[in-house]
Amino acid sequence: MIFRQFYDQKTQRLSYLLADPVTRMAVVVDPVLSVVESLLELIAKRGFSLQYILVTCIHLDHDHTALALKAATDGRVVLHELAPSVHADLRAREGDTLYFGEETLKVIHTPGQSPCAVTYQWRDRLFTGETLLAGGIGSCAPQVGNIAQLYQSITSRLLTFPGEYLVYPGREFDGRRLSSVEETRRCCHWFYTGRRLGAFARACQHLLPSWPPDLNERSSISEAVNDVLA
User: Fold this and answer.
1) CB neighbour list of residue 144: distance below 8 Å, 6 or more residues apart
2) What is the average pLDDT across 82-92?
3) CA 14 – CA 29 distance, rounded (Å)
4) Which of 47, 52, 213, 228 could join 27 via S-S bond, C-beta 3.0 to 4.6 A?
């Protein structure tokens, strides 16, 4: 199996490429615009066929980048069935299995960060987007997020996996880009406290992202997409 993690220093976001070495079929998880060139270079160099462009939750840059990658590779954009975007080629739901070559990914609906947030499971690895970060909890997008749902998604879904399962988040947290289920159980005190949801909500407060992006960010992303497609 071929696996790569990509990092965007400006936004601290993380993207991933997985490829089956036998069939050369590949998928990309949460691509951001700054790593598109590197992704395309790797795909061309290794002779991969990009089958799916997977998005764990809706961000403006993810949405635009998915379109840029689709235009360059013919990969199919996959979003949860509740995602507001009109650009999806495939609408995924809880329990769906995605096949690329001889490998599979399972779709786990983990709402909270947004109603359409999902985690993708490949073998013993969980691609959690911004639902669960490395060594820390995820965040709720204002207006669309739900802290109670986020708590349930993490505690009732993600933390029930075996402790050795690896957590690959969609964003760097305190310099960390990789964690495990067991580490999360141990380091997040809200999981053990008596008033768990209240402690969890307080921990979420400093992680709120800006939502939606301001007009300047929208303009810069659109310009960058045009540059990629030129």
Assistant:
1) 114, 115, 211
2) 87
3) 9
4) 52
The residues, ordered by sequence, that sit 6+ positions from 114 with a Cβ below 8 Å of its Cβ are 57, 58, 141, 144, 145
133 neighbors 169 (Cβ within 8 angstroms): yes
Helix (H) / strand (E) element for 4: namely strand 2-8
Crossing angle (nearest 10°) for helices 60-73 and 215-229:
10
Across 11-117, the runs of DSSP E, i.e. the strands, are 13-19, 25-29, 49-54, 76-80, 90-92, 97-100, 103-109
Q: Which two three-digit tokens encode residue 105?
A: 């990914």
Q: What strands lie across the sheet with 97-100, from one edge to the other?
A: 97-100, 103-109, 118-122, 125-129, 166-169, 179-180
List residues bridging with 18 in a β-sheet. 3, 27
Closest CA to 73 of 35, 26, 30: 26
Q: What's the predicted TM-score (pTM) here?
A: 0.85
